[in-house]
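[audit] Reproducing an earlier prediction to check determinism. Same input, same settings, fresh worker. If the tokens differ from the archived copy the diff job will pick it up downstream; this log only records the rerun itself.
[audit] input (50 residues):
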Amino acid sequence: MGILTLNLLFVTVTIKRIKKTLEQRRHDEEVFRLYDDMHAKMDEYQIRRF
């Protein structure tokens, strides 16, 4: 009985965590885009260096 309760609690916390506002999603997309741009520049630098 304790494991079932724990599993339900985990699922509830997970569902609440997944819901993001539009502003949060846009911020996440911007961060991922900047991260990808940074990696592209690093790769370009590595290619030029060798």
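[audit] rerun output stored. Observation attached for the diff report: The chain has a mean pLDDT of 78.
[audit] end
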